[in-house]
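Structure tokens please, single chain.
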Amino acid sequence: MARASWNDTVIAEIEATVVVEGNHYFPPDSICWDHLSGSKLHTTCPWKGEASNYHVDADGKRVDDAAWTYPEPKAAAGHIRRHVALWKGVRVDA
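Here you go.
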């Protein structure tokens, strides 16, 4: 079982993730979207494409830009389309 949590709140949970470059990407249906809010930050990876970031909110606290997804990745990263990876203190146990 793979689980992402922050501030004692489960953000995502699923049997298995997709691991790319050491990051666990959770399928979109495993994410508790109530704990993510949109960010204006977008980053670009040369082989994955443009990522959209999210803030993670739990129990009245926020960690900025702690999640990202590739809504329309380049072909080489098509297997992580809309999957979500987390960092900046979000604990991922897999």
